[in-house]
Design brief:
2 domains; 38% helix; four-stranded antiparallel beta sheet; Aspartate Aminotransferase, domain 2; single chain; alpha/beta; 17 strands; 429 residues; Aspartate Aminotransferase, domain 1
Length: 429
């Protein structure tokens, strides 16, 4: 049965998709920086602020509801990740979650212990671990092959040793779209007794996650990349929770499970939004479940529909991403980066142009109501490895993007390459 995705029906749920600039609908190809938000998530957040805004444990209706809001949000996150609710926690960002983890795990490290990071990671999964050099830890960096634009697994295995205490690895690269087979990295790390941290911030927006299947000790992702508010989500394998003894602002009475990562008063309105974002993905799954019955066999409840929803998103996005890459490659003077066709990747497409700066290209696109990014996107080591000191132009898809968005983008880039915008001062209004 051929997969058919009703993009217009989905777009109708996003108020931002109704916006125009000078009569032109906005093409939201800036998804890797954060997605647009559906009405149901907006309603959840504003509904909380209107009806339920309070702190926890007050002896009044709203105060008594706050604990239930957090429990519901953690259960939603558990259904999203495929784990138990006590194994998930929220915080302001994935960067903060990793720094909190690094600060607390450092007490288990001693001088000469080794930590492995990679050249394909966002700084959020590099800088916190490099900060442990001040305790005498030795940081090793896995090479990114500039030809294949994938991590060098042999280099990784050569860097593992009985002194390796932690391995931080990226699941999908926000800078170039490469998907790494993290399971084999985790398996090798566990052979030497190392703790593993997976950055799934970019991956989580495009494909289902099963933390038990990959057997990682820890995973971070960010709901604002998949239709939710700006927050960070962390999974911590149950066996590690008590041993880490996370310091929750001196409040042991609320330091339950991975909740310890949520420092201070929770952002309850955002927790409501995160729960709604998971429910929104599940609603996509309910609509397209017939296409994925085999893939979700054995799953139950909301988890079943979340997985189906993410598979539906991938099934729609993947051919659009291919069309965008192939179209860009046909334009003279355009250089497209990322793994070879046929290799696992997200629908994130990055490129440079021989005769034009990345900033100029991005500004021209922006002036034509096409949202893009330019720079390194904190994938600093990736850009160094590829010899791209100025970074790239990045286009990334979400399920509300259309073929028309792709066609308009390709036409604009072709016009830039043809010199039609030479001397043009882009105006973004």
């Amino acid at each position: 049965m051929a997969f058919k995705f009703d993009v217009e029906a989905l777009r109708s749920e996003f108020p931002a998709c109704r916006l125009q600039i000078n009569g032109t609908p906005i093409a939201y190809l800036d998804g890797p920086g954060g997605t647009q938000v559906p009405q149901s998530v907006l309603d959840a957040i504003t509904g909380y602020m209107i009806n339920d805004n309070a702190n926890e444990d007050g002896n009044f209706r709203a105060g008594l509801k706050q604990g239930d809001i957090e429990v519901a949000a953690r259960q939603a996150a558990a259904d999203f990740l495929g784990c138990d609710a006590e194994e998930v926690g929220y915080n302001c960002s994935s960067t903060q979650n990793n720094y909190n983890l690094a600060a607390n795990i450092s007490k288990n490290f001693k001088e000469g212990d080794e930590i492995i990071v990679t050249q394909i990671d966002h700084q959020c999964n590099i800088a916190p671990w490099k900060s442990l050099e001040r305790y005498g830890c030795i940081i090793k960096e896995v090479r990114l092959d500039p030809v294949t634009q994938q991590l060098d697994f042999d280099d990784y295995k050569a860097k593992l040793s009985d002194r390796t205490k932690l391995v931080a690895v990226n699941w999908a690269a926000n800078g170039i779209g490469t998907i790494t087979d993290v399971k084999k990295y985790i398996d090798e790390a566990h052979k030497v007794g190392a703790f593993t941290v997976v950055d799934a911030v970019h991956y989580a927006a495009h494909l289902p996650i099963d933390v038990k299947a990959i057997d990682t000790d820890c995973l971070v992702c960010s709901p604002y990349k998949w239709f939710g508010p700006h927050m960070g989500l962390i999974y911590l394998k149950k066996e590690h929770i008590d041993s880490l003894e996370i310091n929750n602002a001196g409040a042991p009475d609320i330091a339950e499970g991975a909740r310890q990562f949520h420092m201070g008063t929770p952002q309850y309105e955002h927790l409501r939004g995160c729960e709604a974002a998971v429910n929104f993905i599940a609603s996509i799954g309910e609509k397209y479940i017939e296409y994925f019955e085999e893939e979700v066999k054995g799953l139950e409840g909301r988890r079943k529909y979340v997985v189906a929803g993410m598979l539906a998103i991938d099934a729609y996005e993947e051919p659009l991403g291919t069309k965008l890459r192939m179209g860009l490659r046909r334009i003279k003077g355009v250089n497209v980066y990322g793994p070879a066709e046929g290799q696992p990747r997200t629908p994130t497409v990055v490129f440079t142009m021989d005769d034009y700066s990345n900033e100029f290209v991005s500004k021209v696109l922006g002036s034509k109501a096409i949202n893009s990014w330019n720079g390194d996107f904190y994938a600093i080591e990736t850009m160094k490895a590829l010899g791209l000191p100025d970074g790239v132009v990045r286009l990334g898809l979400a399920p509300y993007c259309t073929e028309g968005d792709i066609d308009r983008t390709l036409a604009t880039v072709a016009s830039i390459a043809a010199g039609e915008y030479d001397g043009y001062e882009p105006v973004i209004d």
